[in-house]
Fold each of these.
Amino acid sequence: MEKLKSRKFWICVAAMLASIGTSISGLATKNETITVIGSVCVIASSAIYAFCEAWVDSCAIYNREENKEEDDEDGE
């Protein structure tokens, strides 16, 4: 449920829908270039979202560990 409140998630969904629309319009007009561009953009938007989520998660883990080390040093 938390992901449904994420702006990154909704931007990714919008990018995917636009890319799918591009692919469909390419198919409807029998333009292979447009179809391929739409397909590539669907994959790219998913990959960018996954990368951003992984980056945010890794930053959170790094900051948590850094704060834990500072707390350990203060406790000594």
Amino acid sequence: MTTKTNLNTLYLINDSTKKVNLEINVGDEGQTSLLTVRLDRKIIKENHEGNLTNIEIGKNSDLNGKVLKITATITDTSRKTNVTFLNIKMSGGVLARSYPLYKTVENEGDSANYYAVIEFYKS
């Protein structure tokens, strides 16, 4: 299986006051994770275990040029599969987007590190 553990992309926003939200789904059944999310230097979540649901990042009009950084470590604790994944979902901007990342680790108990950089860009 192909490995994709890094993301570097733009997320299009506009001048509205509509809120941009982040959702992150991690791992597969029986997998553990640790996440940190930052907007520029501000920590939004640090050492968070498990999924993140509907976290507000800010208003479209306030985000232009800012950078969202996500780091995650997912440990394969499942006996069924060695596939780890991180699915980042952004909504509230010009379009809702989903960014799937994944890696198959060699052995049960191994970890995969993920890193995402999402820059907000006013279209």
Amino acid sequence: MGLSESEELAASDSGTGDLLYVTDLVSDNQDALEFACELAEKRGAHLELLYVIDPEKASSRPDGQMGIQYSLEALARSLRNLKRNARARLLFGHPEDVISKRAAETRATLIAFSVGDSSRKRVQKALIRNLAKTCACPVLMFSALSIMKMRSSIGC
């Protein structure tokens, strides 16, 4: 089975901007995070873990938002403890707009999403399709199953 067009772009395109890893803090697993780190290193990019809260769809509970920020920072800290260069950013707004804007601000070389079997998978795929149309950099969606295939094809 061959790579999709976005996977081929991710494998061949290199740059010096950021790799934005958009997380929902649910679909992440160690393999997905490690793969995102490897992609960033391979591309000479900084890894930014990005979580977006859409105020229209989320309750405005500051304690819940603080919990998300804490989890995001803990994730970045755990990667840094493994000698990985990662930082965390919690942003607010419509996800497509916020991610597009952040990608432009950081001159992102890639936007990556790990998709699992969560109930949000359909919404994530629609977001990814829209970002692929509007962003200047490639957008990559991967699952645990696709990581092995991509690692072998790009030398990670």
Amino acid sequence: MCRRGAFAGRPTQARLALGCGSHHGPTVGETPVRVIPLAAESLGVRSMATYVEAGDLGILIDPGATLAPARWGLPPADAEWQALRRANDRISAYAARARLIFVSHYHDDHFRSDPVTYAGHTVLAKDPRRMIAGAQARRGLALWKALEGQATVESADGWRRRDGAVELSVSPPLPHGVDGTSLGHVVGLAVCDLVQRERFVFASDVQGPLSSVAAAWLIQQRPTLLYLSGPPSYVERELPAGAVQRGVDNLRRVLDATGCRAIMDHHALRDPGFAARFEPLWSTGRVVTAAAHLGLPAVPLEAQRRALWSDARKPPAPVRRTIETGDAIMTRSKRTFARRGNAQ
């Protein structure tokens, strides 16, 4: 296992992904590991798409991006559609650079069903036959079938491999939120640079973590940098009592036990009051949003949707309220999803 140290992913490097700033080569003390969030709620869309570069290995993680069809009865504003287009462009560009594509689970904000993204790659994806059910199982099986003859697909659950000086390991299935959740399971990815002794852990939709099982796995990994979804406080009424605070406490426990830094985004940034609600985490100086990791201000457009529409000249047609937490939109015209579910 890697020993802990100072992890790279500095804003000067990461901002290249968004066309911001310039990079004139490595500076003294920089490690070769780069973590570049490509899309996230703090960047305007539902996503955790990330590009990781360790040694000569490029990894594209969870290459999906969506919008919520309805928040407060309102459809996505124009700014959200523009952010989605930019996010998908970035994901496609980094897919061409990656050698490995990792899919943690089969919610539409975490993967693409189009095989073009994966063609010619090694794809490490959540096993669609293990600890999975319903729509996720159907989507996963459909993706694996679509990739036959186009990509090398391997089951990610519990997978471990070494590529030169980079060691990769995948968690067993972890709860998508609270223990026993109906939302199924995700798998986390640990990327360890054996030379630099750095360890990046991508924990996907563990939501805090809300699960003590997920928290224990994260502590066991001893990350130097952790990326995870925050507690879904925007649907707190649908969760067990005290669940959101338990997610905050669990992340504090992970930080204290490992000394790591953390990128916390996704579900947490859907709450218009995220800054105040999670102030005990931001104030540690060790927890930031994906946008802040890139050196950018947060632009949580979904959380700002009411304000975006109030500034528009023409109000939208009313949208019949749905369960907001599982809905997703891929494009304006071709692919629209409206599903029930809790905090996907």
